[in-house]
Amino acid sequence: MNYGEIKNCDIANGTGVRVTLFVSGCTNHCKNCFQPQTWDFNYGKKFDEATKERIYNMLSESYIQGLTLLGGEPFEPENQRELLPFLKEVKRRFPDKNIWAFSGFTYEELTSKGSHPNCECTNEILSIIDVLVDGRFVEEKKNLSLRFRGSSNQRLIDMNKTRREGKVVTFE
Prior knowledge:
Helices cover 27% and strands 23% of the residues. It has helices at residues 49-59, 77-93, 107-111, 122-128, 159-165, and strands at residues 2-10, 17-23, 45-46, 64-70, 98-103, 131-134, 155-158. A seven-stranded mixed beta sheet has the order 3-1-2-4-5-6-7.
């Protein structure tokens, strides 16, 4: 897996101060995507052990609330396979930090057997993350006043409440 950027002290992609990883590779190709260069799976740098350690070091700061995954598309199956062990280690090392993931795929697509993004890692990743921002960016529904998303069709899903209640519960 490759990544395009890592942001430390990000306040735009989730609550509090965060570390944000922009993975490479996306098949959604949303019209007027804000990062079309990340559609290419080969864009950027290799997500290697040194990169992971760099992120762990950033996350170790007490003022960092958590990790955010963006893209590209974190839920492309090839990215999920690389991200799952990393996310498990993040949770092991930092159990009090939260994890947000942005996806152009909807929760329903992610959880539907046989859909493109649903692979052997998807359910476990969904069990680890705390907030899922789902849905493709839709230019016609663009709304810059929305918190943490670009178009009104996208949802902020509270994954902890969603798991407990067995239905999608939005994040307040």
